[in-house]
């Protein structure tokens, strides 16, 4: 994987910004003024099984993912596990994007994996009809995306279960959808300071990525990292679909406090916001909506109360279903 020095990063990004400004005001990052826009985007967040659930509950969502999406102007609905294909299709046609969170469920045989596959397939099929439906995977969700795309579990053990790292940007990051709108100072900070929190025992190594034709054809690697032994893919976006993934946790910097290695500096918190803003802007390009205002109200996360779990889990608050 071609990685480049911080000096090259800054130089390249500065040039790119100048180019963007010179092209035209309609080319400013994030949202072209000529494009139709949905200012009421709703993101579905996938719930998952867990060994530690209160009696009578079957799945959970960490509240940080909800706050993360809300911070950039989206509303959220939970996507519960074990629903029928018809129910999931109806939800898909009502919402504007889906987020597969991190966690510890199986990425091949759980309710999380089953629902994830259904939404991924629907998003691919929508794109082929010209409908833009963004999909985001964080950590476990990132790993699941690589399984959904390649049909195989291609993970390598890494020593990354609780560490903040700086991103090694690839040349492709500069022409990426994801990072194009980021402020130069934030890109410089991401390249040089440990602003991205990693909580994973498994990774997709750069070697595996480069030797898997499905992954290589489908995704562009935007950043890599290393645990000192294995270089792994840490941020990717699909070439032809609005599908994005980070092995790291953008939502934690602003909203999770249970671990000493979660960064909370101003640049770390800006990272949370710019990642959320990018994804919510992707969702603003989708025009799915609920059949009625009543259906929408009944589906929203506001119908549920988060529970304080910071004393007993890695998450400050969780929603249980
Ligand atoms: C979901 O379905 C699986 C497999 O059919 C089953 O083992 C599990 O108990 C179900 N979970 C819930 C929450 O219904
Ligand atoms: C794993 O990484 C941590 C630093 O993040 C280091 O302190 C530790 O020694 C490493 N463990 C192994 C087995 O390499």
From TrEMBL:
Secretion signal, residue range per the UniProt entry: none
Pfam family, one: Peptidase_C26
Gene Ontology molecular function: any one: gamma-glutamyl-peptidase activity
Residues at the active site: 139, 249
InterPro entries, alphabetized: Class_I_gatase-like, Pept_C26_g-glut_hydrolase, Peptidase_C26
Compartmental location: Secreted, Extracellular space
Catalyzed reactions per annotation: (6S)-5,6,7,8-tetrahydrofolyl-(gamma-L-Glu)(n) + (n-1) H2O = (6S)-5,6,7,8-tetrahydrofolate + (n-1) L-glutamate
Known EC number: 3.4.19.9
Predominant location: secreted
GO cellular component: extracellular region; vacuole
GO biological process: tetrahydrofolylpolyglutamate metabolic process
Chain ranges passing through the membrane: 12-31
Alphabetical UniProt keywords: Hydrolase, Membrane, Secreted, Signal, Transmembrane, Transmembrane helix
Family: Belongs to the peptidase C26 family.
Protein name according to UniProt: folate gamma-glutamyl hydrolase
Species whose genome carries this gene: Scomber scombrus (Atlantic mackerel)
């Amino acid at each position: 994987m071609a990685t480049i020095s911080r000096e090259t990063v800054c130089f390249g990004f500065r040039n790119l910004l100048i180019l963007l400004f010179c092209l035209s005001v309609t080319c400013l990052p994030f949202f072209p003024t000529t494009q139709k826009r949905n200012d009421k985007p709703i993101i579905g967040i996938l719930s998952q099984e867990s060994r530690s659930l209160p009696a009578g509950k079957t799945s959970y969502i960490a509240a940080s993912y909800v706050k993360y999406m809300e911070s950039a102007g989206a509303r959220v609905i939970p996507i519960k596990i074990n629903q029928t294909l018809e129910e999931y299709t109806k939800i898909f046609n009502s919402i504007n994007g889906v987020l597969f969170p991190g966690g510890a469920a199986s990425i091949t045989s759980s309710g999380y994996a089953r629902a994830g596959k259904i939404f991924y397939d629907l998003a691919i099929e929508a794109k082929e009809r010209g409908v833009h439906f963004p999909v985001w995977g964080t950590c476990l969700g990132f790993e699941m995306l690589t399984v959904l795309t390649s049909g195989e579990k291609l993970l390598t053990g890494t020593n990354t279960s609780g560490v903040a790292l700086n991103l090694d940007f690839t040349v492709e990051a500069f022409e990426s959808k994801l990072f194009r709108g980021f402020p130069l100072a934030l890109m410089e900070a991401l390249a040089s300071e440990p602003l991205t929190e990693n909580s994973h025992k498994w990774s997709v190594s750069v070697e595996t990525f480069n030797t898997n034709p499905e992954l290589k054809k489908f995704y562009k690697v935007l950043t890599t990292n290393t645990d000192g032994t294995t270089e792994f893919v840490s941020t990717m976006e699909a070439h032809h679909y609005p599908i994005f993934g980070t092995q790291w946790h953008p939502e934690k910097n602003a909203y999770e406090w249970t671990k000493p290695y979660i960064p909370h500096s101003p640049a770390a918190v800006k990272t949370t916001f710019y990642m959320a803003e990018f994804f919510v802007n992707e969702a603003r390009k989708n025009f799915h909506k609920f059949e009625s205002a009543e259906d929408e109200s009944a589906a929203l996360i506001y119908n549920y109360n988060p529970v304080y779990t910071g004393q007993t889990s890695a998450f400050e608050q969780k929603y249980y279903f």
